[in-house]
Amino acid sequence: MRRGRKLSVWAFGSLVLGAFLFVDLIQARGETIDEVYKKALKEGGVLNFYGTLAQINAEKILPAFEKRFPGIKVNHVDATSDKLAARAITEARGGRTIGDAFQTPLENVAQVHEQGLLLDKTPPEAAEYPDNLKGTYWVVSDFQFIVAAWNTNLVKKEEEPKEFDDFAHPRWKNRLIAEPRDLELLLGLAKHKFKSDEKAIALMKKIAVNNIEFHKGHSQLAELLVAGQAAACITCYSHHYPRRIKKGAPVNYLLTEGIGGINATAVFKNAPHPNTGWLFFRWVASRDGQKAYSEGGRTPGHPKIEPAEKTRPAKIYALSVEDIKEFPKYQKIWKEIFRLR
């Protein structure tokens, strides 16, 4: 009997411990997204979204959020990233915060955070992202990739590049174009591919010998390539090519590696609709939100959600906040290598 009583006490203790662990687990998980939604509905049914989503993407993505959370309408404040950041900072200096959620290139998200305007908190959905795609106050929403592209009428199959390094070959002499402001190529290779300034600079100098022709605007680069005005482009956007190829354009593009420019989402610290802003942040970071971004024509940041088009390279050299802080240094080197003013 005594032994039986001891076993009963042990079993009871295990049950109590298990119950406490279960409670701890529930508390660690926090509120569900639908519980946040219920709170958001009490804030007036409006989300003030400061974001650089192009209208062609916003017209598909934002209605998906509104459909998932009926009763909440998105007020999309659309402008360039610099203007959105300046607006948020000016409003805060005037003693008011109008925006709820902020979504721009990471450079501008970091700029606004430095002013103390963003909530230092990330949603539980961020657990599915690697450390280089999130911070203490932001999570990647989508990517914009710098890759190489080429005209298939002018580049033989055996000449097609497999990586950026291939453009150092003399065969590319007087056949290349690029965007003069894309120092991210040098920065990404230095920090993430070679992990060496010397190796990245050496490669860029070899490529520079091939006499690159520079044109401002990535859309223009794509059109020049389609028209056969150049054989290849070393700093093109991957998302510019799937639709052109579908229309029969004689182009192809590199998907073995690419420089990842991060568009990030964050929430304003003193948002007028804090739960609504938090709800949007959680939705964007969630798999459902990322599927909406994919279907809306963006390249999702979530590692498990594939883009609708082939726009995400196999190897991603994603530029971090720390990388971005070194822009001035690499811009100077970039301009020196290619003799740009």
Whole-number total of structural domains: 2
Largest sheet, if any? 11 strands, mixed
What is the radius of gyration computed over CA atoms, rounded to a whole number of angstroms?
Answer: 24 Å
Mean pLDDT: 92
SS element count, helices: 13
Which stretches of 5+ consecutive residues score pLDDT under 50? Answer: 1-28
Distance between the termini: 92 Å
Helix content: 40-55%
CATH superfamily of the largest domain: Periplasmic binding protein-like II
**Strand elements, count:** 11
Top-tier CATH class of the largest domain? Alpha Beta
Oligomer: single chain
Strand content: 15-25%
The CATH architecture name of the largest domain reads 3-Layer(aba) Sandwich
CATH topology annotation of the largest domain:
D-Maltodextrin-Binding Protein, domain 2
Overall body shape: globular
Structural class: alpha/beta
Following the backbone from N to C, one meets helices and strands in this order, namely HHEHEHEHEEHHEHEHEEHHEEHH
